[in-house]
Design brief:
By secondary structure, the protein is an alpha+beta fold. It folds into three domains: about 120 residues; about 140 residues, Alpha Horseshoe (Serine Threonine Protein Phosphatase 5, Tetratricopeptide repeat); about 110 residues. The protein is built from 14 helices and eight strands. The protein has a five-stranded antiparallel sheet, with no helix packed on it. α7 runs antiparallel to α8 and α11 runs antiparallel to α12.
């Protein structure tokens, strides 16, 4: 708003500076007129001296002198313009200054009025109010206003399934996931045969309402959508995410292998999904092409690692309480899939942890099967178990599993 008016004022000032000077400054014609009058006066005086000299020496009689003097005086008055010229000059100056005053007043008023009429109207005069209203489902008005209208409508007609669905989508757009989930609940009670799109959208909303967690109802809704459409893209992604959150990487792989087939080969989505699949395969202990085996010396069963993990003071201001923290142990060489892993949140730090066979990701790869491990802790910026740029981590090791003692992990490094 301030910038708009500043630019407008500068433009009007520039226009006035262009128009006013010719009206208020001394005009060149007036200066020339004054110079001519002075010259005429000098000439007149010289001619009078000559006449008096001619009369004194007898060249002109008294009568001839009087006639010549009258002619000179008449010519002088005619050439100098007399009083009428001065009056005209003064009148021109008064008119010019009056016109300048009128322009100073009228130009800004006319500029604002014409812009308001032919330009953007009131919105143009107040740009802050010109932000477009968000429209929902083709209805006029801001989304907040539309939500109020929908709620009033649904109070009178609570059986309107489409109205509840519209309200749910509006709440979701406003990131009010709790109310959006409630609206989906009401809509589902009125829709006899919900389609996969409805179920997938509801699963997504329900997961957002419980802190982006797919466990429970969201997973059930995604699976129900897949029972109706096994190739539904959003449902496959959500179901794979739900399986990933529960460390069921076999199920995750199955869902995402079905999903990657939905994208054209070479497309951005296809490349990204294939990258995710390769990472899951690596976490399962296999490469993208074939299984790998790692020969290890087996220590005594029942071993565990204990310790405390905390965040360095330098990084505390760069995380949020809900971000995911992974504490894990992995083999020093071979597959990077964790042998044991604990998932918490930043708000749980400092955290006392225990890693043992009960926290293994797969029965085939257990902590007790390795005499030495690498122990690490990581804050994941997006909740992904796979290391990403921007994550914060620390890694210690190799550590002897049977004699590690109490470990202290300080997360102090940002992954480049």
């Amino acid at each position: 708003m301030m910038i708009f008016w500043l630019v407008a004022v500068l433009l009007m000032v520039a226009t006035l500076l262009f128009l006013l000077p010719p009206l208020i400054k001394t005009r060149v014609g007036e200066s020339d007129a004054l110079a001519r009058d002075e010259l005429n006066l000098v000439i007149f005086k010289d001619q009078m001296k000559e006449l008096k000299s001619d009369q004194a020496v007898g060249v002109l009689t008294s009568e001839q002198y009087d006639v010549a003097r009258q002619d000179l005086e008449r010519d002088f008055l005619h050439d100098s313009g007399g009083e009428s010229s001065e009056v005209v000059g003064q009148t021109d100056r008064v008119i010019g200054r009056a016109a300048a005053a009128v322009i100073v007043v009228l130009l800004p008023v006319m500029a604002v009025s014409i812009y308001g009429l032919l330009g953007a109207g009131a919105a143009g005069l107040d740009p802050d109010s010109a932000r477009p209203d968000v429209q929902a489902e083709g209805h006029q008005g801001s989304l907040d206003e539309q939500i109020v209208t929908l709620r009033e409508h649904l109070q009178n007609t609570p059986e309107d399934a489409e109205g509840w669905l519209m309200l749910a989508r509006s709440y979701y757009f406003m990131k009010d996931y709790t109310n959006a989930n409630g609206a989906y609940e009401r809509a589902s009670a009125l829709i006899q045969n919900p389609d996969p799109n409805f179920l997938a959208d509801w699963a997504d909303t329900a997961a957002m309402a419980q802190g982006r967690q797919m466990a429970g109802r969201p997973y059930e809704l995604a699976q129900k959508a897949l029972s109706l459409d096994p190739s539904h893209q959003k449902a496959l992604w959500l179901a794979g995410t739900a399986a990933f959150e529960t460390n069921d990487y076999t199920a995750t792989l199955e869902y995402w292998q079905r999903l990657v087939k939905q994208f054209p080969e070479g497309s951005e989505n296809h490349v990204q999904m294939q990258r995710n699949i390769d990472e899951i395969k690596e976490m399962l202990g296999t490469s993208a092409e074939e299984p790998q085996t790692v020969a290890v010396e087996t220590p005594a069963a029942g071993v565990s690692l204990h310790g405390v993990v905390r965040l360095s003071d330098e990084l505390k201001g760069r995380v949020s309480p809900e971000q995911t923290v992974f504490v894990y142990a992995r083999a020093p060489s071979g597959p990077r899939m964790p042998l044991a892993i604990v998932r918490k949140q930043v708000k749980d730090l400092p955290l006392t942890f225990t890693l043992d066979d009960s926290t293994a990701m797969t029965p085939a790869m257990k902590l007790s099967a390795f005499p030495q491990v690498m122990v690490g802790a990581r804050v994941s910026m997006d909740g992904n178990a796979v290391l990403q740029s921007g994550d914060m981590e620390t890694v210690m090791g190799p550590v002897n599993v049977s004699s590690a003692g109490e470990l202290e992990l300080v997360i102090d490094t940002i992954v480049p």
